[in-house]
């Protein structure tokens, strides 16, 4: 992964005294759980809405803020899918992807595994090869122009059942774009048990893709066990309710299976009642490899830096502790060893300069 080590400027500002927020802002970071369409900022969404009149999504950024206020998880899925409907052609995809990377660069995110749901776009009429070309074109531009390394997780939209699973597997394995590293499963958990997706994960894993399903966000710890045992999960998307099962936490800790924790998302969707009640502290105390992520940041009024600030507060971390959290994401990423060393090195250099 040479682009992580090309020495692209990160825009970091060194020197202590700026507080934890300033430390976080300049810290080189990796993000492992962030959705492609769900990363569309209000500006991008408004632009898309204006280009495609007649959509349910308002084109006015102020009205978008109201539109993105969710009543519950089901309402969130409904709003999310209405934004998906705005993505009409390959140029929409290329623009969205590159602009998402630009927002990442502003936060000093140096590497991201972006969860992409190609079937949703193909279903809406974007030819599959044009879709792949668009994301790959944006990935190369993001590396060259922004110093952001993107990789893809293709995820099954669980609400579309086995047809979505079959098609996502075909798109992943048939067209396997260069940046594709992993295979996921999103959408609602209630009514869509994980084990039915096992044959598709088996095929994806046999083709060399890593397994990273969502589990335990809106259902209990048994869903996380199913993700591990049936889908061969190497990381868990959310895994929030894993904290209710001490044996599961022990299992995750022993095997260094990371949880992709997204605190603000959990509150916005109602998965957790309040940040004070968020189980991230219990996860860390149990020795689990915890990573911090933003999920669908503009939709939840957040970004990765804000999520790090939330985690720093909940876990009472100083800059060195925050740096360790950032290195957890590097460890749990699917970067190759040289890429991991390079990014961990950037974090260490930045942190040492801050402390000094
Ligand atoms: Zn997610």
Automatic annotation (TrEMBL):
GO MF entry, a single one: hydrolase activity
| Keyword terms | Hydrolase, Metal-binding, Zinc
Which E.C. number(s) belong to this protein?
Answer: 3.5.4.4
List, alphabetically, the InterPro entries matched: A_deaminase_dom (IPR001365), Ado/ade_deaminase (IPR006330), Metal_Hydrolase (IPR032466)
Adenosine deaminase domain location is 28-349
Q: Which organism is it from?
A: Streptomyces polygonati
Q: Which cofactor does it need?
A: Zn(2+)
Q: Give the superkingdom in one word.
A: Bacteria
Q: Name one Pfam family in it.
A: A_deaminase
Assigned protein family? Belongs to the metallo-dependent hydrolases superfamily. Adenosine and AMP deaminases family.
**Main EC class of this protein?**
hydrolase
Q: What is this protein called?
A: Adenosine deaminase
Please tell me whether the keyword Metal-binding is annotated for this protein: yes
